């Protein structure tokens, strides 16, 4: 499966309440707080600020891919729902 986003793509995220399965979410990497991750929501537990979600990689077979299988479930509070993406324009050289 190809990743949904590629290096250089842009996105717009909005703080939303309860995550829904299939949504893309942006959140701080639980293993390195200076980095942000974009993952697809799997299962969701709870609702609103108390919700947690399973963060899944669209391409889990790629070396170095990490998701909730490595760092556990993610709190919805502090995450953003991806509502718009912009593809990086490639210029032929």
UniProtKB/TrEMBL annotation:
GO process annotations (BP): signal peptide processing
Protein's name according to its UniProt entry: S26 family signal peptidase
Annotated InterPro entries: LexA/Signal_pep-like_sf, Peptidase_S26
Superkingdom of origin organism: Bacteria
Transmembrane stretches, start-end: none
GO molecular function: serine-type endopeptidase activity
